[in-house]
Amino acid sequence: MSVIQSEALEADQVELDAITELGEQLISSVLAEESVDTVTQLVKSGAPLWYQTNSEGISCLHAAAYVQNAELVKLFIEGGAIWSASDYLGNTAGDIALSFNNEEIYTIIRDAGLREELVRALLSSHGMADAESTMTLRLEDDDTAATSTETFLASKLRFTVDEHGQEICMLKDVDGDEIGVMMGWERGIMQETVAKLADARRSTNGLKILNIGFGLGLIDTLIQGLSPVHHVIVEAHPDVLKHMKEQGWYEKPGVTILEGKWQDFINSEKIQTIVPDGAFDIVYTDPFSEDYAALRQLFGHLQVLLGPQGKFSFFNGLGATNATIYDVYSRVAEVHLADAGFDVTWYDVDVRDSAGDRWGSSRKYFTCPTYRLPVVCRTIDE
Hints:
The protein is α/β, with parallel strands linked by helices.
């Protein structure tokens, strides 16, 4: 290493140490409940709002939430503090506000997240790839088979039964970790979903239903209980298709299976040949590994896919490993559905893990105690 390189490294270390010291000082000042003026001066002097302590992983925004100082929360948010940063316990500043039942601070943080994600989505829709959100339906911050559609479709799936007798479908990622594609504990969610989508329709004849993503067939089995005249299933994974054949789904009356991704059929005449008027009474989607951008793309086709009284829902796993992020991402979806001409009614489903071990060896993709079930219908002009 040359003398110049060595001096450059030393200079970088000095700068890093100075930033770290300012970051620690800022957080300590907030926790000590020093005056807003004192904290403001630290920010102006260059204290980093993104900094998180090595000991606990808390940021200045976490600290402001701990001392319940709404003025400082606003100051940090306006200065660019990261609303979604999690400490070492997995809590965001919004979660801390929730723990204190501080609605004012929680709303400030949540709304900041909503604004940021909406702007990010807008920039992404205009081709600015760097602005793409990390929102995924089941797992976050992952570019393996869990969140890459093409990698997922090329991966090997394993259908088995866990120690509780629940059927599960698993895949292995590049690190050898097993991930549940769908697990038996979701049955309650699917039961509530079908009940809300069908509501008073159960006594009517001739239901036309489209489901995207078969998984374990939990929701499709429940759909069969409605005796639909048309039950269209879109599934792309070869191992799932093989499993469906073994389970006799190809022979079920009224069932049509489209082998491929929904994008392969949505703009073709294939769906119209199955359902002549091209309109379904119920549309549901839960395609493992697709990101939010794909879900939003589907929103844009609902005006054609849904009949006048049709209802739509999707597996809402958007950021569901954290309560604040889950709330923000659910609201983002609501805004985008409104833009597409649809209203959303949310229903809470208690999914707390009473057994304590429903995940087994699988990586967790849903840890919130409450599942927010979306039921989507056309906006009615008053």
